[in-house]
Amino acid sequence: MTSVPEVVRVDPEVPATGVLVGDEERAAVDRVLASGMLAQGPEVAAFEAEFSEHVGGRPCVAVNSGTSALLLGLLAVGVGPGDEVVVPSFSFAATANAVALTGARPVFVDIDPAQFCLDPSAVRAAITERTAAIMPVHLYGHPAAMTALTEIAAAHGLALVEDAAQAHLASLDGRPVGTFGAVAAFSFYPTKNMTTGEGGLVVCADEETARRVRLLRNQGMERRYANEILGYNMRMTDLHAAIGRVQLRRLPAWTMARRENARVLTEGLEHLGAVAVPRVAPGAQPVWHQYTVRVPDRDRVAASLEELGVRTGVYYPTPIHRLPAYDLDLDLPHTAVAASEVLSLPVHPALTRAQVERVVAGVALAVAR
Ligand SMILES: Cc1ncc(COP(=O)(O)O)c(C=O)c1O
User: Fold this and answer.
1) Three state DSSP letters for 304-342
2) What is residue 76's three-state secondary structure?
3) Pocket lining: 131 vs ligand 1, CB cutoff 6 Å
4) What is the pLDDT of residue 303?
5) What does the pLDDT read at residue 12?
6) How far apart are CA 282 and CA 335, in angstroms?
7) Is 262 touching ligand 1 by the criterion CB < 6 Å?
8) Into which CATH architecture does domain 7-245 fall?
9) Which atom of ligand 1 is least distant from the CA of 199?
10) What contacts 170, CB < 8 A, 6 or more positions away?
11) In whole angstroms, what is the distance from residue 266 CA to residue 324 CA?
């Protein structure tokens, strides 16, 4: 067994994402297989306890995806039919889907163009007597404007539900994301800052909420065959949790690597007029799930980078309210511009310094063409 992880690369060029899994993850899975206890068991409990150390000791409940974490978090704080939940339209569809799947209505509002997260003044303007919750997304690993949003939620008696799917270990004024809301949801999908294969986790402000999430996760049961409420099977398996425990130990070093990569990218790109580098809000410690620039000529620059062997991503080309599943005609100008301009450059910790420098050189070349 070696402590140096194997790097799984999607191709020999500079990949947009990189999944770091190695001998330790394999050994952890083998250990669980050998135990014969494959479904939710002691590995899940240990993973929850270990994750809790990163979110101020709050109770954590691991589930089978980030979407499940959002859905169960919303249900546990009482969101349901007839309610409205304020969400950004500039996010992954799962943000709004989780709301809609409770029977509540997602109310899409605009973002702050500086950090791509919910604009507190737009949130304030969207509140009605049916509003039950506000769901900020810490997009790209940058914390949303939690100070203002916490004040708004408190003033109107609303639940704050954090979509922290992309923001493991991010913080604002020294406080970790996941510890602001009544509940917060993390994702462990392979492209996230850490993975369990598929998986998610709900962080809860109190034990009572955590108990409701645990019931919802497991058919409404705490004791076997004593089903108290209607529930799902959204359990995490011990196989996934064992991988997550290894990844969680590595996450702080990977986060530092992402920060260093982001620093090199910003240093190399900030004086290129054609590219707007990401701006960090005062007090924010982002974790660079994505390093996202704005380029008005985005599609041409992305095609040029592709030719140069630098893979990029667009998160997200279509605002959620414009997707066929919602198809709403809303005027969200900052969202519309962001969707047409954003371009995410490779920033993940599997990159070498030479690859990061190649990204900088590639962008300089692409915008000059
Ligand atoms: C912002 C956001 N919310 C929710 C999710 C859903 O997570 P999962 O894919 O684990 O269900 C994701 C990730 O895919 C995401 O990026």
Assistant:
1) HHHHCCECCECCCCCCHHHCCCCCCCCCCHHHHHHHHHE
2) helix
3) no
4) 96
5) 63
6) 22
7) no
8) 3-Layer(aba) Sandwich (3.40)
9) 10
10) 138, 141, 142, 143, 164, 176, 177, 284, 285, 286, 287
11) 36
End-to-end Cα separation, the chain, in angstroms:
47
Splitting the chain (369 residues) into consecutive groups of 10 residues, what average pLDDT does each group show? 39 82 96 95 98 98 98 98 98 98 98 97 98 98 98 98 98 98 98 98 98 98 94 98 98 98 98 95 98 96 96 97 98 98 97 96 94
Question: What b-and-e string marks burial along 97-116, b requiring 16 or more CB atoms within 10 Å of the CB?
Answer: bbbbebebbbbbbbbbbebb
Cα separation of 106 and 129, whole Å?
A: 14
Numbered ranges of CATH 3.40.640.10 in the chain: 7-245
Q: What pLDDT score was predicted for residue 262?
A: 98
Backbone angles phi, psi at 124, to 5 degrees: -55, -45
User: Does ligand 1 come within 6 angstroms of the Cβ of 69?
Assistant: no
Domain with CATH 3.90.1150.10 in the chain: 252-368
Tokens in use for 292? Answer: 């996202």
Task: Give SS3 for 368.
Answer: helix
CATH 3.90.1150.10 fits domain 252-368: yes
In one-letter notation, the amino acid at residue 209 is T
